[in-house]
From TrEMBL:
Transmembrane segments: none annotated. It comes from Streptomyces thermocarboxydovorans. This is YlxR family protein. Residues 13-86 form the YlxR domain. Pfam families: YlxR. InterPro entries: YlxR, YlxR-like_sf, YlxR_dom. Coiled coil: none annotated.
Amino acid sequence: MSGRTRTRACPERTCVGCRERAAKNELLRIVAIEGACVPDPRGTLPGRGAYVHPVPVCLDQAVRRKAFPRALRVPGPLDVKALRQYVEQAQGC
């Protein structure tokens, strides 16, 4: 080999709430299932995904901006109850 060390590039995604770029493993993937935003912490659910920091501030900003329907390309509003509950449990509120 050439003696160079190989470092893997860390994939980055943009939070739909605060619009900041972060490492993919720092963000929570969201998918739309039957008119609701569902958290996908393992990143294995099928369908288009959107990413958000798992904090209430970013979640509130995304909901206020109506970013989830736009990012997930679904018509109409999405229910975020399950997502909000997941974020609150993750924060320990």
